[in-house]
């Protein structure tokens, strides 16, 4: 009886927590379908007269389709580059013995404690000297490597039995073949986790694109949403429509990859 009571209490707490977490998204979606909604409008979770006018305004008065493509392209490219660089570095730290490996890895991880605000000026100077200001490549380059990604994948690769490497070596395989055909297939959940995290960070990135981009046609989604607040100060339905558009890709990716994310985090030992 006591166990059932505790389970019922825990279930109730989880349901209430889920409602609290879900309510802002429901409010955002509802406001986006409320034509002309503002701060002085009567709060309604279900609009009396649902309308797509906010979405029509969003795509007719702004190059929002181009903005979405910009963000998708940059986020996908960032995810691909981080998967490549992080997996190769993680294999080196996990499988290749060299002097000072632990110290180098510790120093590399220490870079995770440096806030991006500290690096903005030197990064901008580098991009300026390379002639990459106001270019997609200028936005992309600082994010092609990830210390967190290396740590995540190294932890996952450390869980792969070394006996598999030895068996592949006896068959004549080198490090590149072991890396591509033995280790990578066994850390698939960790790779999926890193892909989701890197895509999400690039998709939501605001400060660095704000510093490096100048042209309106190169803007990413967070910059466009920030611009909506100035252009449509009282048109909260338009702002919420933009927020809904920005949420949908991440929601779809998470629903598709949540199983792999949970497996990847669990196998890497991150709590």
TrEMBL record:
Listed transmembrane segments: 7-27, 67-93, 105-125, 137-157, 178-200, 238-257
- Record InterPro entries: MetI-like (IPR000515), MetI-like_sf (IPR035906)
Q: Name one GO cellular component term.
A: plasma membrane
Q: From the Swiss-Prot or TrEMBL record, give the protein name.
A: N-Acetyl-D-glucosamine ABC transport system, permease protein 2
Which family does the record claim for this protein?
A: Belongs to the binding-protein-dependent transport system permease family.
Q: GO terms for biological process?
A: transmembrane transport
Its topology with respect to the membrane? Multi-pass membrane protein
- Sequence ranges assigned to domain ABC transmembrane type-1 in this UniProt record: 68-257
Q: List the CDD domains hit by this protein, alphabetically.
A: TM_PBP2
Q: Which UniProt keywords apply?
A: Cell membrane, Membrane, Transmembrane, Transmembrane helix, Transport
**Would the keyword Methyltransferase be found if you checked this record's keyword annotation?**
no
Q: Quote the subcellular location field of this record.
A: Cell membrane
